[in-house]
Amino acid sequence: MSRHVAIVTDSTAYLPPPTMERHGIIAVPLTVVLGDQALEEGTEISARSLALALQKRRPVTTSRPSPEVFAEAYRRCAEAGATGVVSLHLSAEFSGTYDAAVLAAKDAPVPVRVVDTGMVAMALGFCALAAAEAAEAGGTLDEAVAAAEKRAAGTSAYFYVDTLDYLRRGGRIGAAQALLGSALAVKPLLQLDGGRIELLEKVRTASKAIARLEEIVADRAGTSQVDIAVHHLAAPERAAALAERLRDRLPGLVYLHVSEVGAVIGAHTGPGLLGAVVSPR
User: What are the contacts of 134-141 at 24+ separation with CB within 8 A?
Assistant: First the structure.
């Protein structure tokens, strides 16, 4: 690690491994608890294994990294020559990950700026990339934080789920909203808003919901230079088709990333998730 500002994020950023390696980004893993097994996201449990467990209705929960795990990551950065660390994490509304990072930062060997991005998945990943690029350009700790916060402020995330039941069980959406969706037999479109998951629209069928998701993303992207990420869980055909349509209709598209979400986010959304992140340059 040659630059003086190191970038740490968590495993829910879902950055491609080659991208993380190229930019020297460290991802601290969250944990999925499957029955009586605690498994690290990204190394010990795959999204496919998680989807199968959910389909079999096995009990699944998630937990934050310990402060000690973050402390070790910050020590590694310092030992590699970093004089400061920017630590960027998923919304504190979803997880205690941010709080664990703050605790670890107090005793770190170098200054650590911990940021609650209010984001998740590649909405968080794009923030980490912005901070890394600022650091690589010789930016200070404050400048790397500012780059991440600017990217977060301009980034939007929208997603479709087959059912709100998984989000309700995990406490990520209100029971009243989940009940409304079930009672009306509608397909929900959701968005990240203020670090929380909010119901955006209710659509009658899955095909109409996905078509509406595409329209929302295209409207949000407009003609500006934009990076897009398409996420899914156990729905690769849906994701590939949406990505191809977006590629055809977005004139300012710079980067398009398609990936399956990891086990932590998948545990709260369930199979069938289709999401899109819009991040203007």
Answer: 134/5, 135/3, 135/4, 135/5, 135/6, 135/7, 135/86, 136/3, 136/23, 138/3, 139/5, 140/5, 140/84, 141/5, 141/84, 141/86, 141/111, 141/113
This model's pTM is above 0.85: yes
Residues in CB range of 31: below 8 A, 6 or more apart: 38, 39, 40, 41, 62, 63, 64, 65
* pLDDT tens readout for residues 164-214: 777 766 555 554 454 444 545 678 889 999 898 888 888 888 899 999 999
CA 177 distance to own-chain centroid: 22
Region of 245 on the Ramachandran plot (φ > 0 left; ψ -120 to 50 alpha; else beta): alpha
Are the CB atoms for 3 and 24 separated by under 8 Å? yes
